[in-house]
């Protein structure tokens, strides 16, 4: 039996301990905000926070989350008001939106953990997340806006 | 509980007749209706299957709290159509944007008009009908208020979510008027008062937030892959790795032992041509996606590859090259006398260009949920073409169309892949088999191994230059398998619509032009990929024009403008293209003045002609597609064979603007996608199998390669008197040649094979 906390709620699971968190969240808990894009840590669509670190849910077996705090896009904030979420809306970052939960989770961890973000920091960290629609220019701008808002 | 069953593809329609049977091909593939017959010619939305509707009762509803709900019948895949259509309706309705909601229409073209969301057509075809729908609803609200106050309707005016009677200073809110307005007759289309564009509140404005922003940023959107139904099971399918292949044998004992696996189902392959029929294979149905994937890994399958098991990209490239080096191809353009002009030209230039297969690879792979039981079929799916999905489901399930419901979810990207509903048919077949809802998910490997690939092309161009370096003869041979090959048995020539994407409609100011199309058989499923045949045509032609400039010792911008020629309006049918994206050539001529303007705009923006440090260069390309004019200028830096693209300028003239922010975002996205196509993105085949299975080998661009300095220029040459051009696709074609032309300027090395990959490493 594996126990873990997801978005502040305790859960236990007695299925396949190898099941990636991605499928546990999506299929077992119905938290479909976390997306599938590749299944092999190549696209970042599945990005979650595991004990507040940005983590690929698709390659993280649920057994590794034993006793941990998982947060997903649905639980990032109660009101959708993380500076990253706000900036994403202000700048109309999204196109299809499919990658954006992962982008936001990655960006939120980055903005929250790094005070003086450089362009190089942003490019390096965010290059883990693919966007087939090509929203990268606006993601860059939104992260800068969010970092600014964080600093204030 | 665990067992193996087998089901067959029931649909055995004659797919030779399938050209247009579902509307989809007709829509993109054939000349406008009536052109070759005696019937009156129809264009634009009129010529599309099921045309257009503008009935306010279909598209607009208002509740008693005044909340306006706009029904959007086109699929949202990132182009912003849900926002843009709502903007149009809300503006004409005089609604307050904050009180506007959007709901997505299911597939039902008799009710909504054409729903095929492809060809960069949604606003082009529905701007006017949606304006009328909004204006009609506004008129009905005004009439309801006039009735309530017993005053002439001419004295009342809807404005900002209320109707006002100025002389008595009375107002009623939309919510108060909604039920009375709803029972009024829909006003006559002809007497309808449309707003003066000067008073638009939303149309043409750049500060409108996306209607899905809140859901997207909070993770509460529903894409096809996200749908959940009670009691649902989860499926993945092992498909024949080669088109036309089938299962020779399967050992599913280990798969059935995987915890959570419920059933294994054999699916027969389709008849060829397969159109949108599933590929067959072996399905694993389980209690969650992970168990299904693990079960599939445990299957031991031997495949019989069929006739295409020998397909290899390197060999096929040689085949296409051989084909374009003969003059056996079908003659598709012939103006003047190319042979003589070439023979007499003091300078001749020849070049061949190779453009590989690509996969659309939408970030959300194909996925659908189906619930087929008790004589009905309901699906939830990320489809660009809900109506053809419905038709094919009805055939496959042997149900009347009324008993088939296609709920359209958000699409996590489409790019043409989701115009083909094969994956929805798979979900339905499995649900019918199980008698409960089934979610079918394609993994990324499934997506890349079984795509409807962008074609693969060799384009051979030859030109003769006169003593002044001016191009006087132009011979273009194009060889590429056709999209027609999914609809007809083994066609080998491109269809008119493919040729009309930047080849037969090239506005070249050259007296002698000839084009030929040698044969090229298809060995994989070929399908639409954003901007389609414009990709190879624009790459070859825009590269070649730069090569001619080099041969003539001329500046590439000046030379490009010279080849485009003076500002003039061209009827595409007069230069050899009868298609013109389905639009009326009188309303939508090719306008070389506009093409020149976008070219000059980006050249100026990037500082064309400035001194460049070594290893840096500027490149330029212009292309007309989807009845829009686009040009791109890039600045490229090459260091140790590694390409960086610090700056891109892109200009589009797409006529009137509905949602400028989404025009910009489409241009931004097109640039990024083009960067990938120029530098890294390629699908290759060996033994009939796609060699790329995931994003570790199918290299779509990441942020690190995205230009830091990217500027979009919206060139509008005539306000709302101009008909709307396409936006979703036309940005892409000129991006790649603008990059490779800049690489030439930076290095002296001409890229004739895409992608660049490691060609610049010595
Ligand atoms: S699905 Fe996890 S990184 Fe792509
Ligand atoms: S917004 Fe579509 S994949 Fe990123």
CATH architecture of the largest domain in chain B: 2-Layer Sandwich
The level of helicity of chain B is: 25-40%
Mean pLDDT of chain B: 94
The percent range for strand residues of chain B is 15-25%
- For the record, the count of structural domains of chain A works out to 2
- Radius of gyration of chain A (CA) equals 15 Å
CATH architecture of the largest domain in chain A: Roll
Number of helical stretches of at least 4 residues of chain A: 5
Give the ligands present: FE2/S2 (inorganic) cluster
What does the overall shape of chain B look like?
globular
| Strands in their spatial order, largest beta sheet of chain B | 1-10-11-8-18-15-16-17
CATH-derived topology of the largest domain in chain A: Ubiquitin-like (UB roll)
Give the N-to-C terminal Cα separation of chain B.
61 Å
Which value, in Å, is the CA radius of gyration of chain B? 27 Å
Largest interface: A-B, 59 and 65 residues
**Integer tally of domains of chain B:** 3
**Low-pLDDT residue intervals, each spanning 5 or more residues of chain B:** 11-37
Number of strands of chain B: 29
The structure class of chain A reads alpha+beta
Domain 2Fe-2S ferredoxin-type (chain A): 1-76
Keywords (chain A): 2Fe-2S, Iron, Iron-sulfur, Metal-binding, Oxidoreductase
InterPro entries (chain A): 2Fe-2S-bd, 2Fe-2S-bd_dom_sf, 2Fe-2S_ferredoxin-like_sf, 2Fe-2S_ferredoxin-type, 2Fe2S_fd_BS, Beta-grasp_dom_sf, Diverse_Oxidoreductases
Pfam families (chain A): Fer2, Fer2_2
Characterization of this structure:
Chain B: Pfam families: MoCoBD_1, MoCoBD_2. Chain B: InterPro entries: Ald_Oxase/Xan_DH_a/b, AldOxase/xan_DH_MoCoBD1, AldOxase/xan_DH_MoCoBD2, AldOxase/xan_DH_Mopterin-bd_sf, N-heterocyclic_Hydroxylase, OxRdtase_Mopterin-bd_su_IorB, TAT_signal. Chain B: GO terms for molecular function: oxidoreductase activity. The complex is a heterodimer of chains A (152) and B (762). Chain A folds into two domains: 2-75, Ubiquitin-like (UB roll), CATH 3.10.20; 83-151, Orthogonal Bundle (DNA polymerase, domain 1), CATH 1.10.150.120. Chain A has helices spanning 21-28, 83-90, 100-113, 119-126, 136-151, and strands at residues 2-6, 9-13, 47-50, 53-56, 69-71. By secondary structure, chain A is α+β, with helices and mostly antiparallel strands. In chain A, a hairpin with a 2-residue loop joins strand 1 (2-6) and strand 2. Chain A is globular. Chain B has 762 residues and is an alpha+beta fold. Chain B folds into three domains: 6-218, Aldehyde oxidase/xanthine dehydrogenase, molybdopterin binding domain (Aldehyde Oxidoreductase, domain 4); 224-307 and 366-441, 2-Layer Sandwich (Aldehyde Oxidoreductase, domain 4); 313-359 and 452-747, Aldehyde Oxidoreductase, domain 4, CATH 3.30.365.10. Helix content of chain B is 29%, strand content 22%. Chain B contains 21 helices and 29 strands. In chain B, the strands form eight sheets. An eight-stranded mixed β-sheet of chain B has the order 1-10-11-8-18-15-16-17, with helices on both faces. In chain B, helix 3 (81-93) packs parallel to helix 5, helix 5 packs across helix 6 and helix 12 (386-397) packs parallel to helix 13. The model of chain B is unreliable at 11-37 (pLDDT under 50). The interface between A and B is large, with 59 and 65 residues.
